[in-house]
């Protein structure tokens, strides 16, 4: 099939390549002309604007967005909508909040344009390994895109999980689980590092990859990172969050579903960014006030 791809960053660019390798025609657009030129060199059709991209697609058109969630996605959809016709389909493959997706689907639906939300997991490894796709949307819109899903995903790697919004909701929870799994590995390896046994963490991570009940792709990546830098001395312990963990916890609160592990993993990420946090200074001050425990003056450069 011929499909448009908007956003050629780490994910969008690799997904375009995988589609090309699957025999599809891909019309690509990005604000960075160099990114477009690079994909054109791989066999894609380039476009210098959204209107030019739409002009190279035949109805019913399929346009896939891989741009940052929130306002950037909304702005692209607002610009794109007047260029499309009833029966066309827009795919949001980013990590948009599922409620935003539903609102945008309503707006596009009034124009006869379907919005499909494709929660996409796979990261930088997706080009070779394939992408896990959690798809929400109308049956007919999803059916139109099935050839692309089949090429992007590994065998059994995509699923139409429900109506519009269900794909991004499922991906949100997927990422919340990811937070908790990563935190579990981080805490376990920190305890190993703090032991009196001078353990080889890289070797242990590699050991656990073979037959252990805690083996996983995340453990594979941990083993790889530790093999490259056994004490992780080249990186800072600053851990970002891109929103999905927060939305997962908010959704859990709204539904009175206990998700303490995911919530604590999210809060731990917040803590990783603090330098001499106020909360810890207050704890030290309280211990000094009620028990006379010694204070440790802050070292300053």
List the helices and strands and how they pair.
Blueprint: E1 2-6, H1 10-21, E2 25-29, H2 33-40, E3 45-46, H3 50-55, E4 62-65, H4 71-80, E5 89-92, H5 98-109, E6 114-121, H6 126-129, E7 132-136, H7 139-152, E8 158-162, H8 166-193, H9 201-208, H10 217-228, H11 244-254, H12 260-272, H13 278-291
Parallel strand pairs: 1-2, 1-4, 2-3, 4-5, 5-6, 7-8
Antiparallel strand pairs: 6-7
What can be said about this structure in brief?
The protein has 301 residues and is of the alpha/beta class. It has 13 helices and 8 strands. Helix content is 50%, strand content 13%.
Describe the structure in your own words.
The chain has 301 residues and is an alpha/beta fold. The protein is 50% helix and 13% strand. It has helices at residues 10-21, 33-40, 50-55, 71-80, 98-109, 126-129, 139-152, 166-193, 201-208, 217-228, 244-254, 260-272, 278-291; strands at residues 2-6, 25-29, 45-46, 62-65, 89-92, 114-121, 132-136, 158-162. It has an eight-stranded mixed β-sheet, with helices on both faces. The termini are far apart. The protein contains 13 helices and eight strands.
């Amino acid at each position: 099939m011929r499909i448009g791809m908007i956003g050629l960053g780490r994910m969008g660019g690799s997904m375009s390549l995988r589609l090309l390798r699957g025999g599809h025609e891909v019309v690509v657009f990005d604000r960075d002309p160099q990114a477009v030129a690079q994909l054109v060199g791989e066999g894609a059709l380039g476009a210098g604007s959204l209107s030019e991209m739409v002009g190279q697609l035949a109805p019913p058109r399929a346009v896939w967005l891989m741009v940052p969630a929130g306002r950037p996605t909304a702005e692209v959809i607002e610009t794109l909508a007047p260029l499309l016709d009833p029966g066309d389909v827009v795919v949001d493959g980013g990590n948009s909040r599922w409620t935003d997706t539903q609102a945008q689907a309503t707006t596009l639906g009034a124009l006869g344009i379907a919005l499909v939300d494709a929660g996409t997991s796979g990261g930088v490894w997706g080009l070779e390994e394939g992408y896990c796709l959690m798809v929400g949307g109308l049956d007919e819109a999803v059916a139109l895109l099935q050839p692309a899903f089949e090429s992007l995903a590994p065998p059994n790697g995509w699923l139409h999980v429900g109506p519009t919004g269900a794909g991004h909701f499922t991906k949100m929870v997927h990422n919340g689980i990811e937070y908790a799994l990563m935190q579990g590995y981080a805490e376990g390896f920190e305890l190993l590092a703090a032991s009196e046994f001078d353990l080889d963490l890289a070797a242990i991570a590699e050991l656990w990859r073979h037959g252990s009940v805690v083996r996983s792709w995340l453990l594979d990546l941990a083993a790889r990172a530790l093999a490259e830098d056994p004490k992780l001395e080249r990186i800072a312990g600053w851990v970002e969050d891109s929103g999905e963990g927060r939305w997962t916890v908010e959704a859990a609160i709204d539904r009175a579903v206990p998700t303490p592990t995911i919530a604590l993993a999210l809060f731990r990420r917040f803590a990783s960014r603090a330098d001499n946090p106020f909360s810890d200074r207050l704890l030290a001050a309280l211990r000094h006030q009620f028990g006379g425990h010694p204070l440790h003056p802050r070292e300053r450069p």
